[in-house]
Write a sequence for this structure.
């Protein structure tokens, strides 16, 4: 008998049961399919994100800060990576041996480390900006809870010599002073990031996308000449030390292009080690400080009077008495020479002469002259803290003020403004625009006085450095030099201090075709001498001589050794 | 029919294996590229450090000091220097000829 044909096995179940089961299972599949469609097609962001976070990582791409070089490409500031060690205080666990080693590596006293790790924060820097080699050794101590991150540190091989020009950057590699701050946006790099796939070992196996390209900062070529800067700095330092001056400043301009070739200040600081910095060290006296310039302003008054046709270089000025009363005040000269020609007023730096010439001029014209050569307005170099100086509106001038302004009192300027103003004598009446960066094509200047007047003034200024002038010590062998001394009482508590002076000298050379303008200023020389001709002129001479030789400027005067008059015999200017 | 299917199965397996190998190769090469790029960055950093070192050694103040003190050199007197102008410029600046 056939097994299958057994009547016992004939299905007795009702058909609906199997149908129901089938429907339920089918229904379950439909629900699953719908869910799958929902998760994978309609609302897939969440899962995708979860999945990606298992293997993809966003990496930061660091960008370098641009280098600063001098005009010949010599590196003046370079960023290089360093490490910073930080900790999560709660998680730090170390043995006393490890602590001692850590303290030695970080050059911190062990108590200091304890103190920092006991702070109630979740993040504390133990030491920032340590060299990568040291960081590597800290890493080898394998202390839990201690981490490192990469930072950039800026190094300045020039140190104190270039400090004021370059400035420095802060801990996060952003500019804080000087060029670093002025050109922050050019120098700063923009860090980028990219998404990659990493495997279990942490190795990158695939590049997914570049989120943002890293952009390195651009390099900056300054107008500065490192060799010249060093010369200017060392001569200034020598002068500040021998004259026991409180401070000193010097600026060297290229008369052809308006570039700032050197700029130095004392006291200075080392930008690589900025602990214990004082405000006096940080001050950039050339650009951000103003002072009453004294006699160095006389040529401008004389130039204006000549432009207006009031005087010629031979006109005689009645200076015989050596003093001149205006209202209640009296102006004095240091010496009496009898009546002087306009040329002699400049050569011997007569206050009475300059005052008398000034009083023959309209106040508005005099103000216009000062304004046109840039006094009283900020030079707009982009340098942080540029000073504009003080030049009051001419409507408020009293005659005595107009007279004192002729010889540089009652008006204040920065050394940079003064040097730039002298470019009108160096460039036949043209005021040049200044540049901190190297320029390839000289910019156009602005004509302030006629070429004829400028040349006549240059001749007068040349006489001022000859024997019989105020600054024979400013002469340079082999070159014709033109310049003017300035000696001014310092302003203190609203009046003038009796025995505190600012001595300065501004000059240009070679006089036949000026190439450089140099301005020197010494603050409170206190070793006996204080006249600009005795204190500032020798600095000018040394720097000008060296600079012209370095630049290969042909001599325009016979190369005879200079005979300096005996000490202290130069004509004293009126103070 | 069965034969074609068999051939296709073999071809598919071969392709799949090829894909795996080439993917592996690609990843290996990529890792190498990464390493080289990292090395390039390292070298760049080193270059910066060397430049720094160079300019520190070549500081004018230092060079001058060594020249003066160790090598006993001095700046020549202006009387003992002669400025030679390039041929084209001689006519323009009479100061240059002596």
């Amino acid at each position: 008998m056939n097994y299958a044909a057994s009547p016992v096995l004939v299905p007795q179940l009702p058909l609906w049961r199997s149908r129901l089961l089938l429907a339920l299972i089918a229904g379950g599949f439909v629900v699953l399919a719908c869910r799958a469609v929902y998760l994978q097609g309609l609302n897939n962001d969440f899962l995708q994100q979860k999945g990606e976070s298992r293997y993809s990582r966003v990496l930061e791409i660091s960008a370098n800060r641009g280098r600063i070089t001098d005009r010949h490409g010599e590196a003046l500031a370079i960023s290089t990576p360093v490490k910073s060690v930080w900790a999560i205080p709660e998680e730090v666990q170390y043995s006393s041996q490890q602590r001692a080693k850590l303290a030695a590596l970080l050059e911190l006293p062990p108590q200091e480390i304890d103190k920092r790790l006991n702070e109630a924060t979740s993040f504390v820097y133990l030491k920032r900006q340590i060299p990568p080699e040291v960081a590597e050794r800290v890493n080898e101590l394998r202390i839990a809870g201690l981490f490192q991150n990469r930072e950039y540190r800026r190094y300045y091989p020039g140190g104190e010599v270039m400090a004021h020009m370059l400035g420095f950057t802060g801990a996060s590699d952003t500019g804080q002073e000087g060029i670093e701050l002025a050109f922050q946006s050019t120098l700063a790099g923009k860090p980028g990031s990219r998404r990659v796939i990493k495997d279990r070992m942490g190795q990158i196996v695939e590049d997914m996308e570049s989120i943002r390209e890293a952009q390195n900062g651009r390099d900056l070529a300054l107008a500065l000449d490192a060799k010249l800067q060093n010369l200017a700095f060392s001569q200034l330092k020598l002068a500040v030390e021998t004259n026991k001056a409180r401070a000193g400043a010097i600026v060297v301009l290229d008369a052809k292009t308006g570039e700032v070739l050197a700029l130095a200040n004392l006291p200075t600081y080392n930008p690589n080690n900025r602990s214990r910095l004082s405000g006096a060290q940080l001050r950039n006296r050339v650009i951000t400080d103003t002072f009453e310039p004294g006699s160095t302003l006389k040529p401008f008054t004389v130039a204006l009077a000549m432009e207006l046709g009031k005087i010629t270089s031979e006109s005689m000025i009645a200076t015989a008495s050596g003093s001149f009363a205006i209202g209640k005040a009296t102006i004095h000269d240091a010496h009496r020479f009898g009546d002087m020609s306009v040329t002699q007023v400049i050569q011997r730096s007569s206050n009475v002469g300059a005052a008398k010439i000034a009083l023959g001029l309209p106040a508005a014209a005099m103000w216009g002259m000062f304004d046109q050569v840039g006094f009283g307005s900020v030079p707009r170099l982009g340098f942080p803290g540029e000073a504009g100086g003080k030049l009051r509106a001419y409507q408020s001038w009293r005659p005595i003020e107009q007279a004192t302004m002729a010889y540089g009192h009652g008006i204040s300027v920065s050394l940079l403004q003064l040097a730039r103003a002298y470019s009108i004598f160096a460039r036949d009446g043209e005021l040049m625009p200044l540049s901190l960066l190297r320029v390839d094509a000289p910019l156009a200047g602005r004509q302030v006085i006629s070429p004829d007047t400028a040349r006549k003034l240059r001749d007068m200024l040349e006489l001022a450095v000859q024997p019989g002038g105020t600054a024979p010590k400013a002469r340079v062998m082999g070159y014709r030099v033109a310049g003017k001394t300035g000696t001014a009482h310092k302003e203190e508590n609203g009046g003038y201090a009796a025995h505190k002076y600012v001595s300065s000298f501004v000059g240009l050379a070679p006089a036949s075709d000026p190439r450089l303008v140099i301005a020197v200023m010494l603050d409170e020389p206190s070793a006996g001498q204080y006249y600009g001709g005795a204190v500032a002129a020798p600095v000018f001479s040394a720097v000008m001589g060296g600079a012209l030789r370095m630049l290969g400027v042909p001599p325009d005067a016979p190369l005879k050794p200079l005979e300096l008059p005996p000490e202290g015999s130069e004509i004293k200017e009126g103070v | 029919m069965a034969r074609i299917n068999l051939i296709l199965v073999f071809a598919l397996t071969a392709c799949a294996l090829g894909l795996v190998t080439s993917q592996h190769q690609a990843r290996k090469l990529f890792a190498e590229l990464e390493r080289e790029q990292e090395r390039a960055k390292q070298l760049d950093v080193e270059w910066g450090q060397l430049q720094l070192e160079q300019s520190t050694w070549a500081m004018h103040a230092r060079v001058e000091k060594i020249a003066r003190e160790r090598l006993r050199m001095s700046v020549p007197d202006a009387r003992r220097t002669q400025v030679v102008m390039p041929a084209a410029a001689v006519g323009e600046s009479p100061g240059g000829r002596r």
Notes: Chain B has one domain: 2-72. Chain B has a mean pLDDT of 82. Helices of chain B lie at 2-57, 60-69.
